[in-house]
TrEMBL record:
InterPro entries: Epimerase_deHydtase (IPR001509), NAD(P)-bd_dom_sf (IPR036291), NAD(P)-dependent_oxidoreduct (IPR051783). This is NAD-dependent epimerase/dehydratase. It comes from Allomuricauda ruestringensis (strain DSM 13258 / CIP 107369 / LMG 19739 / B1) (Muricauda ruestringensis). Residues 2-229 form the NAD-dependent epimerase/dehydratase domain. One of its GO terms (cellular component) is cytoplasm. GO terms for molecular function: aldehyde dehydrogenase (NAD+) activity. Pfam families: Epimerase (PF01370).
Amino acid sequence: MILVTGGTGLIGSHLLFHLIANGNKVRSNFRTQESLDKVHKVFGYYADDPSHLIEQIDWVQADITDVGGLDSLFDGVEYVYHCAALISFDPKDFKILERTNVEGTANVVNLSLKHGVKKLCYVSTIAAIGPSIKEKEVTEENEWSEAKASVYGITKYEAELEVWRGSQEGLSIVIVNPGVVIGPGFWKSGSGSFFTYASKEKMYFIPGGTGFVTITDVIDAMTKLMDSNVHTERFILVNQNMTYEKMFRKIAPQLGVAPPTKEVSKFMLECFWRWDWVRSNVFGKRRKLSKSVAKGLYRQKKYSNEKIKSELGFTFEDMDKALAFCCDKFIEQE
């Protein structure tokens, strides 16, 4: 039995499809019926009868922060993909981020040890990787620094420490650190918002850039690592380092719209995060742009994918084809 936590998210839902399509016995947790509807939508991108596949998954209503309700989730489980996480860059969400990402991961690690799980794959993020040194490509060995990290990055790094702790106690583990994951299905959050924003033919794009990776590459790397003898290692998963401007220039034409042409200036970003702080603290609004995130948008961040290529002989897919697929699915739903 394979357990996938967070099976109703972007990575989790695509991973479930891959595992079920390849004949694996799979269990996953969920929280609401609405989240299962999202999985059905994702499966529908790849299968004519998504309901038939979804029914083959052993669904258990459980929350990774609820220790009491988690034990039965691990019965008979041999392998675990821990994808569940909360994503937020609002400093006010630090406590709930810590509870979900750190304490939740500690629960998964502890139960994996208790039930004798053979191997665990933890889905982290490049936000938990140390910053660039002298503009060089970031590698898995870059030293962590909390000073410039987002609250999300901090909690994901602390979650990694729980996974490393599990490895010291005898659990076989691998960690993957994906960049911005490009995949269909969640158009109002994460990378999906790139397609939604581009479709509205907006004028401005944010400066800087980061590492991007397709959902297919992430799933392929995770499953190959779990099937291999590799353990006690972490791997950056980045297909291409790209500016946000370039990403929009790739997406917009395939949506039949013009790409944004004006860069948001540093002055505008500085003003916006300050105003965002005011509206959050005075009017109680959710933060859209924290100081740490704004500062990170000033430059192009570059990440090395040499380790995964060297370890597995891994080949990344064509990013343009993946973007075209996403654009087609986005248009179909409009």
